[in-house]
Amino acid sequence: MGVIAGLGRGLLEPLAAAALQLGYGSLWINDSARPDADGLAGLAIVAGVAAGLELGVGVLPLDRRTPDQIADEVRRLALPLDRLRLGVGSGAASEPLAVVRTGVERLRVLLPEARIVVAALGPRMSRLAGEIADGVLFNWAVPDRLRAGIERVTEGERAAGGRRIERWAYVRAAEGPDARDRLGAEARRYARTPAYGRAFDAMDVPLETVGVAGDDLAAQLTAYRDVLDGVVVRALPREWRLADVLSIMRKAAESTG
């Protein structure tokens, strides 16, 4: 299950409890430049109330947070490394592949027990993830696009000696009569950035179809589960209220991750 950074304890704690009850194996939180929207801080709240959930941050941009800063915060928050997937990405770095490669290398030194997941949109980052990371995290991709990305991941794995990493993806999920409109509006917001704009252009599909929407969320998520090791059902509620998020969680619960 995935939620935005910056949610308060009063919402995160019952969502974590509901995730466990509904059979979700993990809860992921993104990260934001806003001081009140720290993904790692949100995971610390979840870790304290839901010992049975795996934790994921997706993702910390390495152009804004250095590996040393990330490691310091992980330690300060006492996040359980055995349950943590530490997602990192290039952010807006001018040399994204170099930033991610050196960032992962440094995190290996600072947090040798951590599972490091690399965010990938394009083929070169997907290949690099297969070569150096413990997992890859895709975002805003239809199943066919995921298959193409996984082929590049496999190339990286082979270059690194035949290792295998985890394949994850954020899949936006909305429910209700305006679900497709909401999905399309959110996709257009991302598409305004160059990297996501290129990714959407490469898929060449209507933006409101990149994700799942409606009342049959679990059935639609099957196509994603067939190509991935883990699906992060990224809730896209009308408002970040408990009832709205729980409704999405319940309708997607047959496809958990």
Structure description:
Strands 1, 2, 3, 4, 5, 6, 7, 8 and 9 form a nine-stranded parallel beta sheet that branches. The protein has one domain: Alpha-Beta Barrel (TIM Barrel), CATH 3.20.20. Helix 1 crosses helix 2 (39-49) and helix 3 packs parallel to helix 4 (96-110). The protein is an alpha/beta fold. 47% of the residues lie in helices and 18% in strands.
Would you spell out the secondary-structure blueprint of this structure?
Blueprint: E1 2-3, H1 9-22, E2 26-29, H2 39-49, E3 54-61, H3 67-76, E4 84-89, H4 96-110, E5 115-119, H5 123-132, E6 135-139, H6 143-159, E7 166-174, H7 179-191, H8 194-203, E8 212-213, H9 217-225, E9 230-235, H10 242-252
Question: Considering the protein shown, what is the CATH homologous superfamily?
Answer: Luciferase-like domain
Biggest beta sheet attributes: 9 strands, parallel
Under the CATH scheme, which class?
Alpha Beta
Question: What's the total number of strands?
Answer: 9
The H-and-E topology, N to C, reads as EHEHEHEHEHEHEHHEHEH
CATH architecture: Alpha-Beta Barrel
Percent helix range: 40-55%
Q: Could you please say which CATH topology applies here?
A: TIM Barrel
* Shape label: globular
What do the pLDDT scores average to?
96
